[in-house]
Amino acid sequence: MNKDNPHVSLYLLNTALLSTHEIDSAFWKEWELFGLPGGIQVFLVLNLLLLLAVLYGFGQLLRGARSGQMFALLLAAGGVFAFVIHGYFILTGHREFTLPVSMALLVAILVVSLIQGVQALKALRTKV
Fold first, then answer.
1. How far apart are CA 24 and CA 45, in angstroms?
2. Which of 3, 22, 50, 104 is 20 to 30 A from 98 (CA-CA)?
3. What confidence tens digit (pLDDT) does each residue in 63-104 have?
4. Would residue 128 count as lying in a domain?
5. How close are the terminal C-alpha atoms of the chain, in Å?
């Protein structure tokens, strides 16, 4: 697969957006918002595992493997989930993620994830 393919560009953009959101999540102590036991330690380990999976998926996408599109779909689903869950928290009175850039990131993640999800689904339908 060509690295200039729009699937690759969307994957990279969404990875950058979600990674930046995770940096923001550390600022807001997201582990407390979600009630994760282990605090920052567990949060960091989970983020490491997620990043490894995302990078593996990117490699699969670059190779043109069908699984690369599945990883793209999972990344897109994760982005939609991030927007929905944080939107819920904001609507229920939590003040985390309400700074303008935090909110802009969430909206950008939603838009890019929806586009990426549609493209990944189309690609999965056309590949045998």
1. 16
2. 50
3. 999 999 999 999 999 999 999 999 999 999 999 999 999 999
4. no
5. 15
- CA distances to 25, 34, 66 from 40, rounded to whole Å, are 11, 12, 35
| Alpha-helical segments (H) within 1-128 | 6-27, 30-34, 39-63, 66-91, 100-126
In a domain, 1, yes or no: no
Q: Please name the residue that has the structure tokens 């339908």.
A: 125
Domain residues for 54?
Answer: 6-123
Integer angstrom CA distances of residue 7 from 56, 123, 124? 15, 9, 12
Q: How many domains does the chain have?
A: 1
Does 22 map to a domain? yes
Residue 105 is assigned to a structural domain of this protein: yes
The type of residue at 90 is I
pTM surpassing 0.85?
yes
Return the exposure string of 12-39: e unless at least 16 CB atoms fall within 10 Å of the residue's CB, then b.
Answer: eebbebbeebbebbeebebbeeeeeeee
Chain segment 38-72, per-residue pLDDT in tens:
999 999 999 999 999 999 999 999 999 999 999 99
